[in-house]
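Ticket #4471: structure export looks truncated?
Reporter: QA, pipeline team
Priority: medium

Steps to reproduce: submit the single chain below to the structure queue and open the exported record.
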Amino acid sequence: MKYKGSCHCQAITFEVDSTNVVEVERCNCSICSKSGFLHLIVPLSKFSLLSGEEAISTYTFGSGVAKHTFCKYCGIKPFYIPRSNPDGIDININCLETKPHTINTVDFDGKNWEDNAEKLSHKSKE
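Actual output as written to the record:
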């Protein structure tokens, strides 16, 4: 199924192809716990930016591998390139207009990222 999403002000719009039953991660790292991001990691080929490339601002920290993208107008982070899956994209499921029928949320220990990252590496594979 195709799901449409956006930032709050809708300057950034996108579409993601996913199933009707998904697993998302609730991460306890410093950035995710403060922003409330719920992770739906998919292959980059399943993602299309529909509008708003000019509205995207990027933030990096630590290793610089993750590219945290925010709307420069409303501040919402609808998706980003994750360090665990730099060949994929991580969608904030809270930014989807309609949600998959079943969302299974699992906790991910991002505070101890180095010990747990391999648990996510399969998510960006076709």
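Status: closed, not a bug. The export was complete when the record was re-opened. Leaving a note from the reviewer for reference: The helical segments are 30-35, 113-116.
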